[in-house]
Design brief:
Type Iii Antifreeze Protein Isoform Hplc 12; two-stranded antiparallel sheet; 20% helix
Length: 288
C-alpha cells in the first residue's frame, strides 16, 4: 500500500512539474514574440552598387529594444523603388545577416553603378595612376589617401629645376573605385591605371588644376586617422639643405664672467756670491 501511495505521489508531482514547465515555456515564448518585430536583413553578401533581389534579402525576428534606426519592416519598399519602379541600390557593401538600413542604400530614384555610391553633394573624379602613384595597388575602394602634386613654384625662373615644389593639396580623400572595381578585397592588392576619388566640387577643381600643372601622387593613410597635417611643401633647395631655416627666436647663451688678468710679476734676479778667502761678497746678475 505504501508503495502505491509513493508511486501516486511521484506521478502527481511529475505531472505538476511538467505542467509548470509547459506553462513557463509558453509564457516566455509569447513574451518573446511580443518583444520582437520582423525586419529585412541580407540573406547573402551584397556588393556595393548592386540592386536588391528577393534572393538577397529575407525577413527575420528582431528584438524591438535593439531595432536599428532605418530598418525595413517589409520587402515591398526594397524591391520596388517609387522613383524607378525597380529594386533599391546599395551604396555600401552589406554582409550576410546585416539589417538593410536606409543609410546603406542609395537615395530613392537612384540608378545603379557608381552614381549610386556617391554621397549627395559630393563628386567623383578619376586620377590616372601607376604602380608607384597608386601605392603599389593598396589604394583600394574604401581606403583614404592624401593627394600630392609636384610642380614648379615659379614658371618664369631661369632654372625651373630649382623652383620645383612638392605639396600636399588634399587630405583624407575617400577612394570610391580602383579601375572599374567598386568592391574591396584587402587580401588582393591590384595595380590599376586609374583610381576614382570622392571629393567636394572645390576639391575636384584643385585636382583638375594640379594634374594639369604637375605630377600627382597618392599617399595611403589609416582610415581611422582624422588628423590633418598642414604643410607649406618642400622645394628642391630645402630638400638638398641649400637653404637654412632661421631659428624662430634668438637663443641667448649665458657667458661666464671673464677672470681678471693676473697681476704682473716682478722679474726675478739671480745672485752670485764670490768667495775669496774669508771675504764673501754677493753680486747681482741681470736676468737675460
Amino acid at each position: 500500500m505504501r508503495n502505491v501511495r509513493a508511486i501516486v505521489m511521484m506521478t502527481v508531482s511529475v505531472a505538476f512539474a511538467s505542467a509548470a514547465v509547459f506553462l513557463a515555456w509558453h509564457y516566455l515564448r509569447a513574451k518573446a514574440e511580443l518583444d520582437t518585430s520582423a525586419i529585412a536583413v541580407a540573406s547573402k553578401d551584397i556588393e556595393i552598387g548592386a540592386r536588391l533581389s528577393p534572393e538577397s534579402i529575407q525577413m527575420v525576428a528582431w528584438p524591438r529594444d535593439s531595432r536599428p534606426a532605418g530598418a525595413f519592416e517589409s520587402l515591398a519598399p526594397l524591391l520596388k523603388d517609387p522613383g524607378t519602379e525597380q529594386p533599391r541600390v546599395t551604396r555600401s557593401g552589406i554582409q550576410r545577416g546585416e539589417p538593410l538600413l536606409e543609410s546603406r542604400l542609395a537615395p530613392v530614384g537612384s540608378s545603379g553603378g557608381m552614381s549610386a555610391v556617391i554621397t549627395p553633394g559630393m563628386r567623383a573624379i578619376t586620377v590616372r595612376v601607376n604602380d608607384v602613384i597608386g601605392v603599389a595597388g593598396f589604394a583600394l575602394p574604401g581606403s583614404r589617401v592624401d593627394v600630392l602634386v609636384n610642380t614648379n613654384a615659379e614658371q618664369g625662373s631661369s632654372n625651373p629645376n630649382d623652383s620645383s615644389i612638392s605639396k600636399t593639396v588634399l587630405e583624407r580623400i575617400l577612394v570610391l573605385a580602383a579601375a572599374q572595381e567598386l568592391s574591396r578585397d584587402d587580401a588582393k592588392p591590384k595595380v590599376v591605371n586609374a583610381v576614382t576619388l570622392e571629393v567636394t566640387p572645390e576639391d575636384a577643381e584643385r585636382i583638375d588644376l594640379a594634374r594639369s600643372v604637375g605630377t600627382l601622387s597618392l599617399v595611403l593613410r589609416n582610415a581611422a586617422d582624422v588628423s590633418t597635417a598642414p604643410s607649406r611643401g618642400i622645394t628642391k633647395p630645402q630638400l638638398l639643405g641649400m637653404i637654412r631655416i632661421p631659428p624662430s627666436a634668438p637663443v641667448s647663451v649665458a657667458r661666464e664672467p671673464r677672470a681678471s688678468a693676473p697681476a704682473a710679476v716682478a722679474p726675478k734676479h739671480e745672485h752670485v756670491e764670490v768667495i775669496r778667502g774669508a771675504d764673501r761678497r754677493p753680486e747681482a746678475t741681470p736676468n737675460p
